[in-house]
């Protein structure tokens, strides 16, 4: 492959998938992976940081799908080449293939990847009318998002699957992460709150304190506290009170116009 180096960001919530794609890209001359992301929000941050020529976006990622990441890039006026990586079958892909968006089916085939990279290289720097097509892709993915966002909560000796949107708050207590919904309360298998947060929609779930993660849509009351800080009273049966750290107080004020 000839020409200037093509810079790339790779976003996939499965580390093995990221590693495999990066390995295959390393076999192609003239391609440099400059950023990695494990979810949609990280992908946006890495793309903003590195301004790559092309972004490889897994279609199904926590927080934001690959389609939603691409849509936000368009809204921001950021236009890297976009290559979707997906496990959807060929017929499903053909239903929403568009001229300016390439795709690769999992497991990734080296020859197909080379073709996609060559296409991205040939279109480097070209402005393409993607907004309408991406809006359609996001609508097609809407039903998939609800099914994807499930979290296993350990209650006694069993695991209960809950929809992410039903989570009211999650808190770090000693070495465990406690998850509370309106129906169940139990623990998560995630090792850290960061790990749990990465699997959730970060526009909805806020890390308001180093030990607490809240669903901003499940806040019942906001109670003023000392030093102009706040306590959030949640909608669970115990009306749990969650402190807001000083660093998150401004974000809360801006969001709720306090």
Describe the protein in words:
It is a single chain. With 258 residues, the protein is of the alpha/beta class. The chain folds into 2 domains: 6-147, Rossmann fold (3-Layer(aba) Sandwich); 150-256, LytTr DNA-binding domain (OB fold (Dihydrolipoamide Acetyltransferase, E2P), Beta Barrel). It is built from 8 helices and 15 strands. It has helices spanning 15-26, 40-50, 66-76, 90-96, 110-122, 131-148, 193-198, 246-256; strands at residues 6-11, 31-37, 54-58, 81-86, 101-105, 150-155, 158-163, 167-173, 176-181, 185-187, 205-209, 212-215, 219-224, 230-234, 241-243. The strands form 4 sheets. A 5-stranded parallel β-sheet has the order 2-1-3-4-5, sandwiched between helices. A hairpin with a 3-residue loop joins strand 9 and strand 10. Helix 2 (40-50) packs parallel to helix 3 (66-76) and helix 3 (66-76) packs antiparallel against helix 6.
Task: List strands and helices in order, with pairings.
Layout: E1 6-11, H1 15-26, E2 31-37, H2 40-50, E3 54-58, H3 66-76, E4 81-86, H4 90-96, E5 101-105, H5 110-122, H6 131-148, E6 150-155, E7 158-163, E8 167-173, E9 176-181, E10 185-187, H7 193-198, E11 205-209, E12 212-215, E13 219-224, E14 230-234, E15 241-243, H8 246-256
Helix pairs in contact: 2-3, 3-6
Largest sheet: 5 strands, parallel
Instruction: Report the uncertain regions.
Output: 94-100, 142-148
Count of spatially separate domains:
2
Return the CATH class of the largest domain: Alpha Beta
Mean pLDDT across every amino acid position: 82
What structural category do the secondary elements indicate? alpha/beta
What's the name of the CATH homologous superfamily of the largest domain? Response regulator
CATH architecture classification of the largest domain? 3-Layer(aba) Sandwich
